[in-house]
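Margin note: ligand = 2-acetamido-2-deoxy-beta-D-glucopyranose.
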Amino acid sequence: MAQILAFVIIALHLLASIVHGSLDQERKTYIVYMGDVKRPAISTVQEHHNLLFSAIGDRDLARKSKIYSYKRSFNGFAARLLPHEVNRLSDEEGVVSVFESRINKLHTTRSWDFLGMTRDVARKPRRESDTIVAMFDSGIYMDSPSFKDGGYGPPPAKWKGKCVTAGNFTGCNNKVIGARFYDLEFINPDEEASPVDTDGHGTHTASTVAGDAVKGASLYGIGRGIARGGVPFGRIAVYKVCWSGGCTDSDILAAYDDAIADGVDIINLSLGGRPRNFLEDPIAIGSFHAMKKGILSSCSAGNEGPYIGTVQNNAPWLMTVAATAMDRQFMTEVKLGNGMTTNGISLNTFTPKKAMYPLISGALASNITKDDYGNASACDPRTLDMNKVRGKIVYCLGTSNQDYTIWKLRGAGVIMSMDEPTDIAFPTLIPGTFIISKIGNEIDKYINTTKDPVGVVYKTRAVNMSAPFVASFSSRGPQKITLNILKPDVAAPGLSILAAYSRLATVTGDSDDRRHPLFNIISGTSMSCPHATAAAAYVKTFHPDWSPAAIKSSLMTTATPMKIKDAEEELGYGAGQINPREAVHPGLVYDTSLSDYIAFLCKEGYNSSLINLLFGTRNKYKCSDFGPAKGTDGLNYPSMHMQLKDVNSSVSAVFYRTVTNVGFGTSVYKASVKSPKGLSIQVIPDTLTFDKLHQKQDFKVVVKGGPMTGETYVLSGLLEWTDSKHSVRSPIVIYRPLMHI
Ligand SMILES: *C1O[C@H](CO)[C@@H](O)[C@H](O)[C@H]1NC(C)=O
Ligand SMILES: *[C@@H]1O[C@H](CO)[C@@H](O)[C@H](O)[C@H]1NC(C)=O
Ligand SMILES: *[C@@H]1O[C@H](CO)[C@@H](O)[C@H](O)[C@H]1NC(C)=O
Ligand SMILES: *[C@@H]1O[C@H](CO)[C@@H](O)[C@H](O)[C@H]1NC(C)=O
Ligand SMILES: *[C@@H]1O[C@H](CO)[C@@H](O)[C@H](O)[C@H]1NC(C)=O
Ligand SMILES: *[C@@H]1O[C@H](CO)[C@@H](O)[C@H](O)[C@H]1NC(C)=O
Ligand SMILES: *[C@@H]1O[C@H](CO)[C@@H](O)[C@H](O)[C@H]1NC(C)=O
Ligand SMILES: *[C@@H]1O[C@H](CO)[C@@H](O)[C@H](O)[C@H]1NC(C)=O
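Resulting structure:
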């Protein structure tokens, strides 16, 4: 018996040591979100320790497992936890949600002119210079000419932030007034712990929002012009949350906790991940607390297009931005020895040194006997003979970074063929371009049938094209979280944007690339979001008292609807391409108050106890007091959207709306409606009379239709309120789930 007992005890010890030994691998970082900060309260940090102790049962381990306490702008903490501890914490009173910290991804000269904001546009420079734009991104490169601070006074008095200096980051100035960095989970031990930008992304987005005007900016002569931000007098506060390993939830929340308390006006995020329930989504949580303080967050829609159902950052208090193409495209011309010329797409900064170069294809330069070693036609690594490639331009099938392979083999250039045309111009490490395979085939034929084939790839140049249209990569709706809110909200240029860059990065991002430019041309919804952020900041300089919802409404209802190429286009661009100049004078706005959001959250199924945690109140709000929010979507949103339950559902939607007069004192607005075939849209009443500013008027929009037939899955109409001076436009979009998304 004693022996058996001893064995059991030893076994238990063994078990305990196994558990202890594996603790660190099994623990994962979780966020414990606890709603608004409570005041007055016992020390928030003490409260976090007590909760962790009761979940873990060991004071020392509890202390070690905590990573960070959020306490300036909302309440919560990040900690390394085991599954059963997560369950215990989820049951604690005061805890809204517990979710694993995930990793998110980072998703101009010409662009501002294209949006109608020429250099001489009316500005409020004094107010602009009081506007602080927070950039949650990969940091900033201070030596860029876009961030010179000549002529700027000291930071606005409301600024309570910090400039954290370390390593290569030696300080801020009166343009970039703050900089912090977060790597709470230590996932980037090899990178310098400082706000410095070694990627280029953060520098690019910051200069697009608020960069100073720089004349003669270009990427080695390509796209030359004046590079400037949308609010060139604005101040920048940098919150570095993105590293080579991505951007973690815990870091994004820490940045929100600080930025809100630091006194910023607008937060711009060019990052995101898979859509999640609002209470487990750090961007939705952070932006919710920002919204309560009157700060608008503007976010990129994601780069998962053109597939539908891919839009990210879906909370109704966010402004979600899609990417469009400007009227400028980058073409790279190719010429062959037989006189044939063709246009490819790329960013080739190299000017040819000779009139013509010998030309060869991967197939003919092969040094492998069997396909098992790789695909020589596609110029796979280790399939080509260096002696056949050296000094030649190589034609390769497919697009898989062949520029790097050919560079290694001392080739003179590369022509890559692609099956589908693309609108994105990618930089190449050596002279190179992408062409569609139909033309590629002709080049291949020329190579096969000519004794000494020759060709040349010219330097890229900018050409005009008709625009705007939604960029291929821009994520499309419908969204999957709040089904009846249309996302993305608006679109802004995001294709081939020239803006400041970090000299610590290279043109291609490849460390073998020797080009460290001060400006670079890149594409992404990351590039479109700063345009919308700056437009919002610009509107705010004219209307400092407007709520984030009113500013977003003004940008949405004045947006330019785009050319419809495909039926689903509204799922790609929302209300249209922003028009900042018009947004200053929208006439009417669809405003949203905190109590509207409470009613909306109640309708979405959040109960009174959760609402009170979110608002940091004790039993103050009851869903029953607000009644269920009315109508199909339950929110006073500037666009109208419904996702049908299934393929055969009839359409029956009612949207209740309230508009606030921000135009002239006395005015009469008349409704006009564009309905697509198969949909009836009725506006009740169809005339709104205002006799003073800030007056509100209610109306409703009733949408009816039979089941949609055939392959149709989007029906879109338009509501437009007009007086003599304003046109207030809202898209009405019905989505039918044809396929499972
Ligand atoms: C601003 O928006 C761009 C585009 O979405 C994004 O890349 C960047 O990270 C954003 N910055 C902030 C502060 O959110
Ligand atoms: C500064 O940046 C350079 C270039 O990336 C790097 O080699 C150096 O280590 C950095 N300095 C510090 C102090 O980290
Ligand atoms: C083909 O050439 C490449 C480099 O030119 C070399 O790395 C590879 O080993 C060669 N393969 C064969 C099968 O000779
Ligand atoms: C080689 O790659 C190209 C382009 O991706 C493809 O079309 C072709 O079928 C491949 N060939 C083989 C033998 O796999
Ligand atoms: C050119 O020759 C290569 C190698 O024989 C072959 O794979 C390719 O299909 C030919 N191209 C054309 C267009 O005939
Ligand atoms: C492109 O458009 C701009 C303005 O729309 C015009 O000034 C310019 O001449 C055009 N360039 C070409 C090459 O057509
Ligand atoms: C409110 O919702 C939360 C989470 O769904 C749940 O845990 C809680 O019990 C609910 N409270 C009430 C009073 O229904
Ligand atoms: C929709 O209607 C069609 C034709 O009446 C029918 O074949 C199909 O099963 C229906 N689908 C659903 C999901 O009800």
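The pocket of 2-acetamido-2-deoxy-beta-D-glucopyranose (ligand 5) is lined by residues 363-364, 377, 441, 444-445, 448 (CB under 6 Å).
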